[in-house]
Structure formats: C-alpha cells, structure tokens
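Thread title: Can someone regenerate the structure for this chain?

I was given the following input by a collaborator and told the matching structure tokens would be attached. They weren't. Posting the sequence so someone can regenerate them.
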Amino acid sequence: EVGLGKTIEAGIILSQKWAENKRKLLVITPANLRKQWNQELADKFFLPSLILEKKSFTEEIYKGNLNPFNQNEIILCSYQFARSMEPYLRQVQWDLVIIDEAHRLRNVYKPGNKIANSIKNSLSHAKKVLLTATPLQNSLLELFGLVSFIDEFSFGDVKSFRGQYLKSTSDFENLKQRLSPICKRTLRRQVLEYISYTNRIAIVEEFYPFQEETELYDMVTDYLRNPNLFALPASQRSLMTLILRKLLASSTFAIQKTLEGLANRLDVLMSEQDQSATPEPVEQYEQYEEIRDEWIDDDDDFADESRVKEKRVLTDDEIAAVKRERDMLLRFSELAKQIKRNSKGEKLITALNKGFTKLQELGANKKAIIFTESTRTQQYLREILETNGFAGQIVLFNGSNNDHRSREIYNQWLGKHKGTDRITGSRSSDTRQAIVDYFRDEATIMIATEAAAEGINLQFCSLVVNYDLPWNPQRIEQRIGRCHRYGQRFDVVVINFLNKANQADQRVYQLLDEKFQLFSGVFGASDEVLGSIESGIDFEKRIARIYQECRRPEEIKEAFDALQKELEPEIESNLELTRK
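Best answer:
Regenerated them for you:
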C-alpha cells in the first residue's frame, strides 16, 4: 500500500546485487520520479546512479560509449525513454530491472499499448521487480498483464485467463495460490505492530455557489446533455464531457478559456470542414493523457491510432447547427469571464484557518498542500491567497513548473547545491526537488495539480486540502498518501469542499467518506476497501453517467441509492474475503 516502503525494498535488492558485483542494473520510472530515485539511492544506500535522458545519452555517445546503457552505475530512465531506446536496452545483459509505478504497464495485454509492449519485449531476457500500490484499476486482466511481465507463461494466454477467472464461478482461491510466488502484497494493518500510524481527521467546508455560478453550471450542464454536439468528437464524447464537468466544478476561470477554445474549434470546423481536430480542454486538464488511456476501452475506435481521420462536407443544416452551437459556447464563455468571484474560492480562507487551528492543537508544522485539477484554478487560488494574508508564502507545483517563481526557486537551489550530487542535471527532476525543498523550508502553502499526487514525499506536511475532489477513490488515496505515510508524526487533517446546492456532489462525497472511508481513521481507504470495488475508473464512469443522465433531484437520489446498494454487499463480502 501507499507509503509502506516499496522503494526501500527495491533499494535493498539493488544493494544485494551490487554487493555480488552484478552491476548491470536498470530502474524504469515515471520521468518525474527519476530525481527522487537518484537521491534515495545515494542517501539511503550509497549507490551511484545515472539519469539517462536525451542530453546525457548523447554526451555518452560523444565520449565513445556506443551503448550508454552499458555503465557501472545504476541506470535511471523514464518509460518514454525506455521505449524510444528499445534497441539499446535489448543489447544489455541486465542483472536486474526495477519498474516503478508498474500499474502504468497494466494494459500490456492490449496490442495498442505501445510503451508497455515495447518495454516488455526489450526486457524479456531480464529478471524484473515491479513496484505498485495500485495494481488494478479496471479488471483482473490488468493483473494478467502485470504478471506476464514477470512470467509470460504463468497464466497461458489472455483467452484462457478470461475463461478461468472472469466468470462468476471463478476459482479465486486457485488464482491466489498461483499468484503467491509472483506477487507480494503488504497492507497497512499488517505493519501496525512495527509502525505507529497516525490518524486522519476530516473537515468538511460547505458552500453555496453565487447565483451567476449556478446559472453557468446549469447552462453548461444542459449543453453537455445535448445528444448531438459538433465540438466534442463522438469517439471522445464521454471522456470530454467528464473533463468539462471537472473544470466546471473547479472554477469559472478553469472553464472559461475551455469554452472559448471549443467555440474556436467550431470556427475551424466550418472553415476546413475537418472533424478530426483535437478538442481544446486538454491543455487545462493536466491528466488528460493518463486519464484518456484509462477511459478508452478496447473496442473504442478512439483507441485505434491508425484509424482514418473523419473528413466530410457538412450540409447546410449542419452548418447552421454548428453556428448555433458556437454562439452558445461564446455566450457561456462571456458569462464565465464576467464572474469575478467564486464562492468555493472565498470559502478556502475559512477552511485553511480551521485547518491551521487544528494543526496548532496537534503541535504540527503550519504547512498545507492544496490539490486542484486545473492549472487555471491553481493561478486563481494563488491570487486569492496572496491577497488574504499569504503573500510570499505560496509555491506552485504542476506538470511543467515553468512559471517565473519556480524558475527562481530552481536557480537558487542550483546555487545552494553547486558541486554536490544533489544535482542530477535533469532540469525537470531537479525543479521538482527544488520546489519540494522550498515548500519544506520556506513556504506555508503548496498549490498542486495531480502532478504532485505521485512520487513526492511530504511527511513534513499534515494538512491536505482537496479543493477539487476526484471521483476515483484511488486518486484521492494517492493524494492523501503523500502526507499520510511512514514518517508522518502528526495526525493528518483532510479538508474537502461540499457544494450544498448540488445533490449529486453531496452523494458522491457521502460514498467516498462513508463507504470508502477515505478521510478518517488510521487506514483511510485501505487496500481492502479499494480492492473491493471492481475499479476506480469504473466507479468514476458510473458517477459521470449519473451526472449526465439524471436531471431531477428524485432521479439523482434513485441512481445513487442503486449504486450504493450495489456497492454495499460487494464491499462487505470482499472485506470478508480479504480478511480470510
């Protein structure tokens, strides 16, 4: 589970190999975690490592090393880099390969998953250790995919695995036995004897949107329910609708530019009559690439990269409909632009003061991490906080980290650590580390996008604010796990915002809080609970469907009652099974 020391276990295995003089060692990790690996190997295990990326790779070639993966140091590289350098990877006789956040490879059984298949093929000859806290998001086939990395023949082919384990009569006891030599799982409750875990304390900040915010919400919601929309390609309709809803719930500032972008897309559509252009919202929603992979199914034509792009001539009626839709989007965008105040944003100050008061009672540092799903909302929150007493105490963390202040922090950090092995030379990795260090030593508040939900350790902070709440419980658990982990000395306070005017929002919160137990207690959404829902993505899709299809309060109530009723026995029986 999150925060129980997978990296440490991997470091112990690498140390053993190193001691045996087996030094052809490789760690493949998400790009943003390379620096952390480099640092932890040096600090905790005194092992030398080298981050290979385009620049360092080319430098090695110039030095005369025709395969820069051939080194007497542990090689660290990203998934994308491993894929692009497949021929070089194949040629090294690796003693061991560690793959971190390995759930990213879980769809390897789908031929369309290019990165996973490339890594699997190029490393088929090597011993591997895969590390993940969330091995399953969608179905047992992902387990099949991950196991096939370790042993191609453990379960035969996909077809036989489906036949054996994807039926209601499946023999899971047998599956468990077959997994036992391959898969090692440690749950938080198993380590309580050795590790004293702190509690989680939940605070709910309720708010009622201002009238113009409600107006905008209702208008965009009605628009999204329209069965025929030209701005959203049919193959991406459900995914794009989800993203628009997320931006709408985040802030009017997040949705405004997106609506304008969709209107511009319709201008392009009318001028070129080309329906293959990519829609705009992606640049406002950092996780687009990742979430797209999770949402797109095998049989979705969007998943087929080779499909022919649509291009056809629109009829006069269709052109008239496109114009009407464009005017509508511009009207929404104009309304969003006129809204200068967001009720949730104004409540943030109240919520933070409550959180900091609680931290003072607990004796903890005055530090808070605020999570949002939009980079525009991130900017808006910084402005609000700076004008309300937190000027000079804020740092931003996102996927690019290229704003003026982040660059300043990075340059100061470089100066401070000049000539030490803290500097890896990978700008993105070093910038992430510089911002985390600055948050620890200087800032009071970090405003982060989902980029900070994976792979950074913030045990020095014990206040997590979910300004935007994901519907996928696994994502929420990852966020809280940044602070609520081994090494945290204080109870972790979790603040969530609740729109009292939106019945669906209230029911989603109730499910996450009461059924999944995410926000309070020692375990949070422990592995037992997360493992008991078929999937975080599936749950998110079902929530999205309720928002899309249910208009009246009684419809919303009925749909959530049905979902809750379905979850209850599933969670209970799975908890029972897990305990056994």
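The first strand starts at residue 25 and ends at 29.
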